[in-house]
Amino acid sequence: MSSTIETVFSARRSVRRFADRPVERATLEQLMQLATTAPSASNKQPWRFVIVRDRAVIRAMAEAVRGEVAAVLAHMDESGREAFRAYGEYFTRFEAAPCVIAPTCRPTPILSQLVSATIDPALRERVIAMERTSATVSTALAMENLLLAAPQLGLGASALTGPLLAAHALRELLRVPGSWELLALIAVGYPDEEPRKTERKPVDAVLRWIDGDDAND
Predict the structure, then answer these.
(1) pTM surpassing 0.85?
(2) How many whole angstroms separate alpha carbon 85 and alpha carbon 117?
(3) Which of 6, 32, 170, 196 is least enclosed by beta carbons within 10 angstroms?
(4) Domain tally, the chain
(5) Assigned domain for 200 exists
(6) How large is the average pLDDT for residues 201-211?
């Protein structure tokens, strides 16, 4: 692996504290240009990204998430409530960011439109699930591009899925069409912290090999 690639990968951190400085539109456009070089299933590029720089909208998004966190807390016993309260605070960390990017995707129904009504219903469901997963994975690849590119542009970023507790309210605030799925929120801004490198699981702990008889160690 080249030292350049290693530098890009090792520079990525989840930044949650940001300087009180707006991110220029041109910089965000450059960031998204890099993000959307990601591969996608059948090159359908099933993604759309909502970029929010309106502070009032970001605050409203955070309030919506906060309300859902409170609703979840109300249905926990005291021991679970204390543990979740600290965890739930992470769900609204995007509120401090000058920019929030919302990745959305829509499955491209190709195979599901080509099969006839005679197909086994369970197989049809698997076809539809495959198309849905393809859109999600494709957009996740673009999200990773975004997270890797951000430090190269002097930005910090962190991706959050916790806010999806309030997906219904966020969709309304972001005007996400009904056929599109909201996948996460990404907080973006100029960093006001230098997060330490977090520990990774040993690679051997996350691998399972299925080798042929003639495989070499």
Answers:
(1) yes
(2) 49
(3) 196
(4) 1
(5) no
(6) 94
Non-local CB neighbours of 170 within 8 Å, separated by 6+ positions: 61, 64, 65, 102, 163, 164, 176, 182, 185
Q: Which distant-in-sequence residues (6+ apart) come within 8 Å of 94 by Cβ?
A: 58, 61, 62, 100, 158, 160, 163, 185, 186, 187
Domain containing residue 47: CATH number: 3.40.109.10
d(Cα 202, Cα 197) in Å, to the nearest integer?
15
pLDDT in tens, 120-160: 999 999 999 999 999 999 999 999 999 999 999 999 999 99
Structure tokens at 13: 């951190």
Return the HEC string of 116-163. CCCCCHHHHHHHHHHHHHHHHHHHHHHHHHHHHHHHHCCCEEEEECHH
d(CA 34, CA 105): 18
Residue 216 domain-assigned?
A: no
Residue 107 has phi, psi (to 5 degrees) of -60, 145
Structure tokens given for 102:
């919302």
